[in-house]
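Project standup — Tuesday

K.O.: blocked on the structure for the chain from last sprint. Re-posting the sequence here as requested.
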Amino acid sequence: MRPKANFDEETDPRPPSRSQKKRDSHALQALGGKLADMPESALKRLALQPQLMQAIKDYKALSKHEAKRRQLQFIGALMRDADADPLARAVEDMEAGNRSQNREFHEVETWRAALVAGDESGLEQILLLANEEDRNALRPQIRQLARNARAEQEKNKPPRAARSLFRLLREIKQGKPINAADTENLDNSGDEGDQTEAF
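H.V.: unblocked you, prediction finished:
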């Protein structure tokens, strides 16, 4: 027995069913909601139709749930006249970028937490991500910032060194060049005893 042919929308001569229209409408509305979550700077790059752009701006300004729901339906209706494919790709690219940024943030945060806790077991692996000529300068800088961050925690001080350590680790992770002058300007927020403490 021959299998039934699988028709897609382009080859099926029949008009879309009511349920298919409803699914399409919901998909456009969902895509409109994702567009509404994008920052305005990203939306400007998409060259949206003026009416759709204004509807998204209006949606962002609303605070009540029911008003937002109705505005989202309106955005979905406007999306029927837009070319949804490039918009969907832009949303996918943004979401993929956000996931990558979140992973990077959590990894760097894990590194920092371990170093501040005194666990140096991953330090050499971190340093392998930096340029070879920078590693000798970075090693004591990371240790110093970790000691200072630990002292800040113990004394309930603002986390200046912890923030500096996070920033430095993130730059290493991203492969950014490390300014040699920065390695000399350590955040000396700990007292002298903290700075000479063995790591």
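K.O.: great, moving the ticket to review. Residues 1-7, 183-199 have pLDDT under 50 and may be disordered. The CA atoms of residues 27 and 66 lie 19 Å apart.
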